[in-house]
Design brief:
Radius of gyration: 19 Å
Number of helices: 11
Structural class: mainly alpha
Number of strands: 0
Helix content: 55-70%
Distance between the termini: 53 Å
Largest sheet: none
Order of helices and strands: HHHHHHHHHHH
Strand content: under 5%
Length: about 350
């Protein structure tokens, strides 16, 4: 799929794509299953949603993590409409190389997540996932500083540092890994616009501003650093620096690349600590809600990277600050006992 021209109705163009129609049908079917399987309550460990009905949770998820990212995509398109669009597929030598490297990276990621689960369960009774326990949805137990720091260090080393060094050693430049900017001014406009909308939304619905001045002064830097190391940089390097250009080469489709970016980002969080895999219905509900929660944000991150050719844009516009500072600072205050 080529980016819609100014003369085309971009919404109609997107909605007429068969893949998009299939996803819309699947979303509807998943919603029906969610109502059926979750009729007696959801099994998730999400204290922030305690007391919310299933309908309220589905509506909030739809609005905040699907509709809002689509609005961000529209803003990004308007901001970047006059700049040359990079071709991420050209950053991979061939389809054969893209296929081989994609398989290697995905298998490596599966092994690292399995080891993270084993390590976390052995030491703290809960496996390491794409997010720290309590991130975004509230903590049902105290996560100590040691667990938080170990989780961040493990994810950073295994999912960001090692893959980055591996591909740099293979001869890929930072530009080929989408880690440089061809238009810094335009990139910063996107970051400021998209980031501001996210921060304002988080402040309106979150509890960051209920913290004391001392808690904010210490908690904000902690949330920034731990979130950056534990999830921000791993997501950026593993998915949007490495896998996304290979998806672009394999599919030769902007739409499919964006969708695969969303699916991969959602898969990154399949074993976050709030999920419940204790029965077949709970497994299905966990998979449904993981994809409800993270598919939209993952698509936006992919779209930001495709439009700019710079993976840093999504990190600063829609990850490192909002939500992992604006939402997770209270978690860091509790984790590090900041009073």
């Amino acid at each position: 799929m080529i980016y819609p021209s100014r003369q085309q109705n971009w919404l109609v163009t997107i909605l007429t794509q068969r893949t998009v129609q299939v996803i819309m049908v699947l979303w509807f079917v998943a919603t029906v299953f969610a109502y059926w399987l979750g009729a007696d309550g959801l099994p998730f460990d999400r204290p922030s949603f305690a007391g919310f009905s299933l309908t309220a949770q589905l509506a909030a998820t739809f609005a905040l993590v699907l509709v809002l990212p689509l609005i961000h995509m529209g803003l990004t398109y308007l901001i970047t409409r006059n700049r040359p669009q990079p071709n991420l597929a050209d950053r991979v030598p061939s389809i054969a190389v893209a296929r081989q490297e994609t398989v290697v990276v995905v298998l490596y990621g599966l092994v690292m997540f399995a080891l993270g689960q084993a390590l976390g369960r052995a030491v703290w009774g809960a496996g390491f996932g794409g997010h720290m326990h309590g991130s975004l949805f509230g903590a049902s137990r105290h996560t100590g500083a040691g667990e938080a720091l170990t989780w961040a260090a493990y994810n950073f080393i295994t999912l960001a540092l090692i893959p980055y060094l591996y591909f740099r050693n293979k001869g890929y430049s930072n530009a080929a890994l989408s880690l440089t900017s061809a238009n810094p001014r335009n990139d910063w406009i996107i970051i400021l616009v998209v980031g501001s909308v996210g921060v304002i939304t988080d402040l309106l619905i979150g509890n960051l501003l209920t913290l004391s001045g001392r808690q904010l002064l210490i908690g904000i830097p902690l949330a920034f650093v731990i979130g950056l190391l534990g999830t921000g940089l791993p997501v950026m390097v593993f998915i949007y620096s490495i896998l996304l250009p290979r998806y672009a080469r394999l599919t030769n489709s902007t739409l499919m690349t964006v969708l695969l970016g969303g699916l991969t980002y959602a898969s990154f969080h399949l074993f976050d600590s709030w999920t419940a895999y204790t029965s077949v219905p709970n497994v299905l509900l966990s998979i449904i809600f993981v994809f409800f929660q993270f598919f939209g944000p993952g698509m936006l991150k992919a779209y930001l990277t495709l439009r700019t050719g710079n993976a840093w844009v999504h990190l600063w516009a829609y990850h490192a600050i909002s939500p992992h500072v604006t939402v997770d600072t209270p978690l860091m205050v509790e984790t590090f006992n900041i009073r």
